[in-house]
């Protein structure tokens, strides 16, 4: 959720890496899981959970989040969340967003993203196929998860941000704010391919998305959509 539904920076990943001795090139959860003994894994995870609790005091909801989610809901689009945060932190943030997501999965669902399993699980829960979904996120993990599951992928962030710059080359489209997602889903004026900066030319849409599309907030869902990005 950090960087997608909330502003980046509340959770200090650099500090977490330093405290648990995780190399920069390794995923934090993957680094912890690589240890053979349970006591060590538990000790390292306790550090992560402590930092997640402390970060809650600094969380800021991304501007436009409530309006975008309410608009999606009003137009029949279902929403879900896939996060690598712990269950308690995820629930605390979702309460502040004040949106009734159809499904929300924390890292307690294994394997977590970037593995496609949580995304596919949500699609199964709501009775939708990957072609009826879009994964929206700010990180490469989000894009890898969506691409592996076979959904549309939308990267959100600011040009120049290192996390976002790693994600955008593998996304179908890029936006700087959550409200910009709506026209991409056929819920407003569709931007032209030229206006969709960062989308690889081979994956730019050749036609408007059908109105009964679905999104993903870290996930948004709705049945019977047309995804011309597959063309």
UniProtKB/TrEMBL annotation:
<dbReference type="InterPro" id="IPR036412">
    <property type="entry name" value="HAD-like_sf"/>
</dbReference>
<dbReference type="InterPro" id="IPR023214">
    <property type="entry name" value="HAD_sf"/>
</dbReference>
<dbReference type="InterPro" id="IPR006439">
    <property type="entry name" value="HAD-SF_hydro_IA"/>
</dbReference>
<protein>
    <recommendedName>
        <fullName>HAD family hydrolase</fullName>
    </recommendedName>
</protein>
<dbReference type="Pfam" id="PF13419">
    <property type="entry name" value="HAD_2"/>
</dbReference>
<dbReference type="InterPro" id="IPR041492">
    <property type="entry name" value="HAD_2"/>
</dbReference>
């Amino acid at each position: 959720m950090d960087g997608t539904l909330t502003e980046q920076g509340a959770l200090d990943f650099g500090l977490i890496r330093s405290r648990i001795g995780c190399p920069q090139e390794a995923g934090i959860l993957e680094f912890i899981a690589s240890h053979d003994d349970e006591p060590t894994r538990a000790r390292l995870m306790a550090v992560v959970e402590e930092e997640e609790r402390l970060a809650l005091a600094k969380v800021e909801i991304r501007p436009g989040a409530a309006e975008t989610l309410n608009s999606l809901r009003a137009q029949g689009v279902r929403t879900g969340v896939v996060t690598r945060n712990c269950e308690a932190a995820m629930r605390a943030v979702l309460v502040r967003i004040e949106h009734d997501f159809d499904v929300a999965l924390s890292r307690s669902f294994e394997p977590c993203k970037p593995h496609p399993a949580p995304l596919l699980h949500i699609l199964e829960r709501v009775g939708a196929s990957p072609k009826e979904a879009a994964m929206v996120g700010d990180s490469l993990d989000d894009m890898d998860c969506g691409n592996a599951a076979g959904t549309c992928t939308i990267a959100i962030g600011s040009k120049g941000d290192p996390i976002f710059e790693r994600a955008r080359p593998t996304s179908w489209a890029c936006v700087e704010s959550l409200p910009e997602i709506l026209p991409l889903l056929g819920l407003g004026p569709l931007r032209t391919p030229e206006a969709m900066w960062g989308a690889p030319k081979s994956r730019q849409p050749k036609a408007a998305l059908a109105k009964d599309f679905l999104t993903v907030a870290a996930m948004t869902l709705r049945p019977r959509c047309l995804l011309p990005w597959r063309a």
